[in-house]
C-alpha cells in the first residue's frame, strides 16, 4: 500500500461525487439493508475503484454507497473483505483508509457472530466493548506504517466510549436488547470446534467472528473514533453442538437487522 494508491482511489470516488462524508459504515454478513435508507445514493462498485480489492463472498455485495443518512453525509461499505478470502491485512483494511481520506470523522462497524456467552439470545445485538485478536497478524505490521500514523498504536480503549454510551441509551429508549461483551476475531472460514469454543470462553470472549478487528485497529491507528455491533446469529454451545449452516446465519441476521438499522440511524442522528 502506498500513499499514491490511496490518493488514486480517493480521487476516483471524489470525481464520482463522494463529497466529504462525515460517517463511514462497514456492513457485515446479511446486514446490507442500511444502505437502502440512504438518500440520493451515489454508487461505486469495488471492481471500478482503483486498487480496491474485490468482494468474493457470494452474500457480500461489493459496492461503496454515498449519500445522506439522518441529515449527514455518509459512505457505506456494502460488502467487506476477510482474511479467509485470501486477502492480507492491508487489503482488508484498505477501504477504511480510503474512507478516512474522503473525510469521515466516525466509523460504524457491524458483523454477524456466534455467541460464546450462552446467557445471550439468538438474534440479540452485542455492543463490542473490547476484542481479542486471534487472526495471527496485524494491519499495522508493514514497513512504512509510520508514514500513515504512529507504529505503536495504543489499544487500551479501542471502541469509542461516547458512541457506546449513546448506543446503550438509544437501545434502552427503543426497547432493543443490547448485550455488551468481548469479540474474538479468528481467521476462518471454517467454524470452530467444541474445544475451540471452550478455549474462547476461557479467554473471556462473549462472541466470535471472522472480521472487524483489523478495521478497528486501523481506525485507532488513524485516531478515528469507532463503534461496533455484532448480531448473534448462532449459539456456540460445546456441550450441545448443532451444525451451523450459512443459510440459518443469514436468516437470523435478516430478522435482527431492523434493530441494528434503527440503532445506527439513531446514533447518526444523535452525533
TrEMBL record:
Q: Name one GO molecular function term.
A: purine-nucleoside phosphorylase activity
According to its UniProt record, the EC number is 2.4.2.1
Pathway given in the UniProt record = Purine metabolism; purine nucleoside salvage
Sorted alphabetically, the keyword list is:
Glycosyltransferase, Transferase
Any GO BP:
nucleoside metabolic process
InterPro entries registered for this protein in UniProt: Nucleoside_phosphorylase_d (IPR000845), Nucleoside_phosphorylase_sf (IPR035994), Pur_Nuc_Pase_Ino/Guo-sp (IPR011270), Purine_phosphorylase (IPR011268)
Cellular component (GO) terms are: cytoplasm
Residue ranges of the Nucleoside phosphorylase domain?
22-268
Function of this protein?
A: The purine nucleoside phosphorylases catalyze the phosphorolytic breakdown of the N-glycosidic bond in the beta-(deoxy)ribonucleoside molecules, with the formation of the corresponding free purine bases and pentose-1-phosphate.
**PANTHER family, per the entry:** METHYLTHIOADENOSINE/PURINE NUCLEOSIDE PHOSPHORYLASE, PURINE NUCLEOSIDE PHOSPHORYLASE-RELATED
- In which family does this protein belong, per the annotation? Belongs to the PNP/MTAP phosphorylase family.
Protein known as:
Purine nucleoside phosphorylase
